[in-house]
């Protein structure tokens, strides 16, 4: 458990579409140096919640307080077919206002796709596009990282690299939230929640969480 206060403080968030409630009072604290998972069935409201946490969608009621630089990897990729990997890095460099791409190139190496730097997105495989999506969320060294099904399309080796990367980010103080419909990553997490009937239930304290107490 982190001694530092939360960088994401979510109080009683509610959201429905038309007359159908999806989120019915979500509470969540995310602290620096925590790796937290949220699982839930298809349609449980995970992406809706993540979009609200990222500030991309308004809640009907409740509050979300964020502190620090935000990095977000949404479920759909945010890429343009005609532009190369390098061009995407340059656009996001300008958007983030960062002076160099050192961290971005480091991430390309870590995810093993530096060779694709000058390829257009249209020529990349689905898994490689997802790697780029992830790099774009990480290249400005965020303090709060929100990831929606971040390893979709990854092969096994890349999947393991993803978790090494997530653990390294946690260890350098980043607060990492991973949303997925599968719970088999539980042992890698400090806390695992289940989104069920519109609320977050803490399912168990994982091995990593117990070690961190
Ligand atoms: N823009 C929208 N308009 C109406 N209903 C929506 C909209 N977006 C999502 N929903 C509905 O809200 C519910 C929650 O959707 P959401 O995408 O948040 O679930 P999810 O847990 O992320 O699902 P999945 O695991 O399939 O990605 C679903 O029933 C979905 O059909």
TrEMBL record:
Identify a single GO molecular function assigned to this protein.
ATP hydrolysis activity
Residue ranges of domain ABC transporter in the record: 8-213
Origin organism is: Streptomyces broussonetiae
Q: Which Pfam families match?
A: ABC_tran (PF00005)
- Listed CDD domains: ABC_DR_subfamily_A
The protein's matches in PANTHER family, at most eight in alphabetical order, are given as:
ABC TRANSPORT SYSTEM ATP-BINDING PROTEIN (PTHR43038:SF7), ATP-BINDING CASSETTE, SUB-FAMILY H, MEMBER 1 (PTHR43038)
Q: Cross-referenced SUPFAM superfamilies, in alphabetical order?
A: P-loop containing nucleoside triphosphate hydrolases
Q: Which UniProt keywords apply?
A: ATP-binding, Nucleotide-binding
Top-down, what is the taxonomic lineage of the species of origin? Bacteria, Bacillati, Actinomycetota, Actinomycetes, Kitasatosporales
Name of the protein in question: ATP-binding cassette domain-containing protein
| InterPro entries reported in the protein's UniProt record | AAA+_ATPase, ABC_transporter-like_ATP-bd, P-loop_NTPase
């Amino acid at each position: 458990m982190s001694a530092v206060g939360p960088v994401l403080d979510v109080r009683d968030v509610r959201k429905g579409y038309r007359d159908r409630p999806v989120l019915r009072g979500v509470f969540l604290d995310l602290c620096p140096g925590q790796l937290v998972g949220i699982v839930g069935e298809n349609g449980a409201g995970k992406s809706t919640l993540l979009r609200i946490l990222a500030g991309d969608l308004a809640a009907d009621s409740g509050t979300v307080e964020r502190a620090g630089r935000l990095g977000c990897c949404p479920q759909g990729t945010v890429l343009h077919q005609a532009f190369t990997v390098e061009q995407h890095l340059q656009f996001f460099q300008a958007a983030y206002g960062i002076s160099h791409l050192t961290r971005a190139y480091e991430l390309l190496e870590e995810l093993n796709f530096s060779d694709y730097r000058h390829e257009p997105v249209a020529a990349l495989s689905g898994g490689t596009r997802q790697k780029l999506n992830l790099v774009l969320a990480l290249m400005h060294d965020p303090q709060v990282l929100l990831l929606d099904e971040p390893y979709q399309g990854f092969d096994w080796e890349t999947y393991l690299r993803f978790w090494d990367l997530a653990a390294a980010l946690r260890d350098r103080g980043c607060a990492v939230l991973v949303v997925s419909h599968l719970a088999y990553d539980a042992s890698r997490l400090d806390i695992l929640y289940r989104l069920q009937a519109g609320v977050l239930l803490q399912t168990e304290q994982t091995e990593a969480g117990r070690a961190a107490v």
